[in-house]
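Put briefly, the fold is written as integer tokens. The lines below illustrate.
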Amino acid sequence: MCDTDAARLIYFGAPARWAERLLTTWLADVGCPLSKSLDSGFGDPVVHAEMTYHSPLRLDDEVNATLSLIRRTERSLTFHCGFGLGSGPATAVEVRLTKVHVRFGPDGAEAVPLAGPLLDALVAAAG
């Protein structure tokens, strides 16, 4: 219910939260939990987000989720998160998130090249 509006349609901002949960879960599953990254002085803030709505999702819909890496640069990652109905192939909502790898220092955050466990996990996931 918290993800729907008064018309019982998915609230427009809910898929952004779903995408963040999907990414955070994947990071933990590949051995790079967000807490570990932050504790070591690194982070991956979202610097660009976009959502495209192809069809409505409604209260009580069973929603499936997919996650894929669609672009990698030296310092950033762009993910595609798709949300659709049940087991069908159609995507109702697409979320694209670009994250930049940063190191936190005394003067703030500085973009740095991807390295270490996160890069290893990405290479392994890419097959």
Q: What stands out?
A: The chain has a mean pLDDT of 89. Residues 14-126 form a domain with the Thiol Ester Dehydrase; Chain A fold (CATH 3.10.129.10). The helical segments are 14-29, 34-39, 116-126. Strands lie at 42-43, 46-53, 63-72, 76-85, 93-100, 102-105, 108-111.
